[in-house]
Design brief:
- By secondary structure, this protein is of the alpha/beta class.
- α1 runs parallel beside α2 and α2 runs parallel beside α3.
- Helices cover about 20% and strands about 25% of the residues.
- The protein has a single domain, classed as TIM Barrel, CATH 3.20.20.70.
Length: about 150
């Protein structure tokens, strides 16, 4: 998997202070997407074990009280991203006590493949649905268009 950007300190993508990873790769290619540079799975930087460890270390750094990890993109549930995202969310839940995981995807919760559902077992909050430019609403919290739903899973 590749990632486009990583922010060890982020207050935009989810509640509280978070670590946020924008992965590369998205097949939805929504019209009006603000992050089109993440669509190509080959763009960005390789998400290797060193980068995975950086995310874990940042979440466990007590100098900044982070509430959790936000996964966006691109799409974390893009087929080529599944194994790396699953490994990351498992480690976060095992090694980062009390940290929540938020995940944004263009896929719908009730249409996820078994592999995608494995990841969702570790996710606390899922924001699902493609961005629909006709339904865009800047007043919405944590989503870009009104068709997108926030699922509080834990």
């Amino acid at each position: 998997m590749n990632y486009h950007q990583y922010f060890p300190v982020d207050v935009i993508n989810g509640p509280g202070t978070r670590a946020t990873l924008f992965v590369s790769g998205c097949e939805h290619q929504c019209r009006g997407c603000y992050n089109q540079s993440t669509w190509n799975p080959c763009h960005g930087h390789k998400f290797d074990l060193q980068m995975q460890q950086q995310v874990i270390d940042d979440l466990n750094d007590t100098r900044i009280k982070r509430r959790g990890l936000s996964l966006s993109g691109g799409d974390p549930l893009f087929p080529e991203n599944l194994s790396a995202v699953l490994a990351l969310v498992k480690r976060v839940k095992q090694e980062c006590i009390g940290k929540d995981i938020w995940l944004w995807t263009g896929y719908l919760l009730d249409e996820l493949s078994p592999q995608q559902q494995q990841i969702i077992e570790y996710v606390d909050v899922l924001v699902d649905g493609k961005f629909e430019q006709e339904l865009a609403d800047p007043s919405l919290v944590f989503r870009g268009s009104s068709n997108q739903l926030i699922h509080y899973l834990t």
